[in-house]
């Protein structure tokens, strides 16, 4: 797995149903804390299996509301960490500077593949969201 430590500081996190399915919300929060709580979490209101599903999981993991933004958030110049969010990625209109996508590699729930996943600025990290997030924990020298 590539060393992503310097690239995720200040990232915009886009969680999706894959985060919920892997029960990886606590692993996401731990990784956020390891980066000094510099992340904002872009939560689409319909992400997950029902409206508010991802907000509920982020609440359980202890992600503060003031660090959550909606789909109108400007992604230009941002590094985006998408976790199990293939469906959500299809509506990303503004291209991020860099996308790191944690995915199982399959199509989204609606059967489509997000075009941004084929972008050369995208790094795909395949596997279970919880396992991948734990592997991304920065190591102390």
Automatic annotation (TrEMBL):
The NADP transhydrogenase beta-like domain, residue ranges: 12-89
Organism: Nocardioides flavescens
A Gene Ontology cellular-component term: membrane
Protein origin, superkingdom: Bacteria
Its EC number(s): 7.1.1.1
Places the protein is found: Membrane
GO molecular function, one term: proton-translocating NAD(P)+ transhydrogenase activity
Gene3D superfamilies hit by this protein: TPP-binding domain (3.40.50.1220)
Catalytic activity as recorded in UniProt: NAD(+) + NADPH + H(+)(in) = NADH + NADP(+) + H(+)(out)
Protein name: proton-translocating NAD(P)(+) transhydrogenase
């Amino acid at each position: 797995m590539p060393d992503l430590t310097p690239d995720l500081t200040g990232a915009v996190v886009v969680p999706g149903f894959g985060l919920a399915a892997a029960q990886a919300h606590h692993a996401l929060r731990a990784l956020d804390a390891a980066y000094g709580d510099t992340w904002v979490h872009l939560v689409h209101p319909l992400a997950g299996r029902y409206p508010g599903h991802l907000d509920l999981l982020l609440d359980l993991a202890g992600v503060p509301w003031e660090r959550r933004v909606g789909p109108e958030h400007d992604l230009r110049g941002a590094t985006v960490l998408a976790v199990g969010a293939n469906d959500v990625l299809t509506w990303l209109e503004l291209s991020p500077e860099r996308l790191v996508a944690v995915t199982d590699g399959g199509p989204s729930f609606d059967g489509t593949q997000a075009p941004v996943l084929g972008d050369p600025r995208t790094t795909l990290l395949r596997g279970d969201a919880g396992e991948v997030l734990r592997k991304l924990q920065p190591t102390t020298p």
